[in-house]
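User: Could you check the structure of this?
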Amino acid sequence: AEAAAEAAAEAAAEAAAQAAAAAAQREQERAEECAATREGQLSWRVARCEEKMGFVGAGSDFAPRVDWLEDVLGLASEGSLEERLGAVERLLELEPFETLAAEPPAEPPAAAPPPSPAPVPAPVPVHGGRVAASPGRGGRGGR
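Assistant: Sure, the predicted structure tokens are below.
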């Protein structure tokens, strides 16, 4: 049973590492596709920020969407749309678009070893179908 649990934990860790690598690859491919046009870049960057905030916006009018992001994050609306979006990305700790579009994704970190199984508690001594009485709690002797 212990070996099966370890094998399952290793399989889960491997699956998580593969999923992370696939997600990074998809993100880079999407960045490369969007890099062809200014509108594509803005669309991808705004959607990524909104996703990080747990919101899904729509439409190609990016200014109100960036306004909303700035309002929620408490940022001042200064500069070009790209500069404002860059400030939002930095605050959300997202990798800059230029980096994602230019570089291949980094290798995912090695999976951590699975945690060792919890120790099994020692059995409680039983005498004649009953748990042994603790000294000083009922039973013989005492006072």
